[in-house]
Each structure stands twice: as C-alpha cells, then as structure tokens.
Amino acid sequence: MREVVSVALVIAAALGSVPCAEAQSGKGAAFEAGLVRCAEVTQPTTLANCGTDRLQEGVAEISDEGEVEVRVVQAAPSVVYSVVYRSLDGVGLRVIGELTTNSQGDGYLDAELFTRGQVGSGNIVLKRGGVDQFVTGFKVRK
Q1: Rounded to an integer, what distance in angstroms lies between the CA atom of residue 132 and that of residue 125?
Q2: Which of 36, 46, 82, 134 could pair with 127 as two cysteines, CB 3.0-4.6 Å apart?
Q3: Residue 105 vs residues 11, 14, 22: alpha-carbon distances, Å
Q4: 104/115 Cα distance (integer angstroms)
Q5: pLDDT, mean of residues 53-80
Q6: What is the pLDDT of residue 27?
Q7: Confidence of residue 142 (pLDDT cuts 50, 70, 90)
C-alpha cells in the first residue's frame, strides 16, 4: 500500500495539481504536465513515429485563460520544434506555434490559443523532422 501511495504522489507531482475547488465548481481548471521523450514512453504502450532528440526536462501548461506556455531544457541545440495540440484519439491537430532552442538547447514558447468557454482534452506534442520528439507525460523516478 505504501508503494501505491508513493507512486501516486510522484505521478501527481509530475502532472501538477488541479485545485479541487475550481474543478468541482465549474470555474475551470488549468492543464500542466511534464514533457517526456516520445521514444521513452512505455505506458500504457510504446509510441510510434518517435524521434531521438535529447531532453533534460520540459513542461507544458495551458492556463484557465487560454494561454499556452511550453519550456524545454537541454533539448537539441539551435533547432525549431513545431508545437501542436493533439486530440486524445490522435486524429485532431491544432498548431500552437514554433519553439526555437538556443545553443544550450533551452527554449520557451508563449501563445494565446484558446478563447473563453472552450473546453479541451488532448496532449501537447513537440515535433521536429517529421516525427514526435516530446509529448506530455510523466516519468516515475524511484
């Protein structure tokens, strides 16, 4: 039981927290998740069409005001990633913008994408070279 609780806490910490009062009252909830390398995903299954770019850490956020922020640390240096919002079934896709990394591989994107009243469910994906490099997800560290 202790292991289950500790794993749940790690997952909650990796995904961020949504205030229960906001979610229950219908006022809206923010989305925040870590970014992981597509090629490292194993749960619930491995992903196809993944690239090989490095990534030390990353985060993607969508505020309850519709602002999208994406940050990467030590990804591939001096490259441009296409940042997209992908539906859970993988069919729908909406371009958020481009994130350019510096010579150390650090990059940041801030975009106004969603408007009042919109409700979404999906994943933020960073693409380069025609393949998915990073996706929203979590990594359990034990």
Answers
A1: 7
A2: 82
A3: 26, 22, 35
A4: 34
A5: 97
A6: 56
A7: confident
Q: What is the chain's alpha carbon radius of gyration, rounded to the nearest angstrom?
A: 15
Do 74 and 105 touch, CB atoms closer than 8 A?
yes
The number of beta carbons lying within 10 Å of the beta carbon of residue 138 is: 18
Report the length, in residues, of the chain: 142
Phi/psi at 79 (5° precision)? -130, 170
